[in-house]
Specification:
Layout lengths: L60 E5 L1 E2 L4 E7 L10 E6 L6 E10 L2 E10 L3 E2 L2 E5 L82 E3 L3 E7 L2 E6 L5
Antiparallel strand pairs: 1-3, 1-8, 2-7, 3-6, 4-5, 4-8, 5-6, 9-10, 10-11
Length: about 240
């Protein structure tokens, strides 16, 4: 008899075995539900504000003409009034037609109403014949504030409930009855010994379903063993040669 084993209990090598029918293991229980999410930690405190950069102010404004700015470098403007600027003052020169376009730099030369500026910052494309000139400062960005401290960690969620147990496997069918023992020997000149169990009752091979037979009767041929499991009800098992 060949058997495909799908379940093992223990291990070992043995010469004698008892074979019986068995039910399938019960299915696994369903998984428990997940625990609830822990609450969020409190927000960290805000970082301190950065220090303010140096402010920019236009202390005086003058109109000027006659220059096109194509990039950083040295450029000259003719002022249209008698505004007074000091040498090395930093000025912003704004396109009078579009105040979003301007350039900045320090005054290198003053000759009457003519000023020459070393331009080091250009915004937009400030090409114009009409300008506004005013003092400005080197505005630097304030330092960044410190980062706020981290919030506290939220508490852990509660554990999910355990899943329900799996259903039990079905009971296996009963094994076939063992062979009846041989009759006991007679007692010596004493009381008669108890009678031994009834021996095997052999029957003719059942020819079809429902063939006559009593529970416990056996029959066999070259290929199969027949067992009468109840009145007129037979079970069969194939025989396999092992030597």
């Amino acid at each position: 008899m060949d058997v495909d084993c799908i379940w093992f209990g223990g291990s070992g090598t043995f010469a004698d075995w008892i074979v019986n029918l068995s039910g399938q293991p019960g299915s696994s229980g369903t998984s428990g539900v997940s625990g609830t999410m822990g609450s969020s930690g409190t927000s960290g405190t805000s970082g301190s504000s950065g220090t303010c950069g140096t402010s920019i102010s236009n202390l005086q404004m003058s109109s000027a003409t006659s220059n096109n700015v194509t990039g950083t470098g040295t450029y000259s403007w003719t002022l249209n009034d008698n505004a007074i600027y000091a040498l090395l003052s930093r000025v912003r020169i704004i396109n009078n037609n579009n105040i979003a376009q301007y350039c900045e730099g320090r005054i290198n030369i003053i000759a009457g109403t003519l000023i020459t500026v070393g331009v080091d910052n250009v915004v937009g494309n400030p090409n114009s014949s009409s300008w506004l000139v005013g003092l400005t400062a080197d505005g630097t960005s304030g330092t960044s504030g410190n980062s706020g401290s981290s919030g506290t960690t939220g508490s852990s969620g509660t554990s999910g409930a355990n899943g329900s147990s799996g259903t039990s496997g079905e009971n296996g069918s009963s094994g076939t009855s063992g062979n009846t023992g041989s009759s006991g020997t007679s007692g010596e000149n004493g009381s008669s010994g108890t009678s031994g169990n009834t021996g095997v009752v052999w029957s003719s091979i059942p020819g079809s379903s429902g063939a006559a037979g009593a529970a416990g009767e056996l029959a066999y041929d070259a290929n199969s063993l027949y067992v009468c499991v109840s009145a007129n009800s037979w079970a069969t098992a194939s025989l396999v040669a092992i030597w």
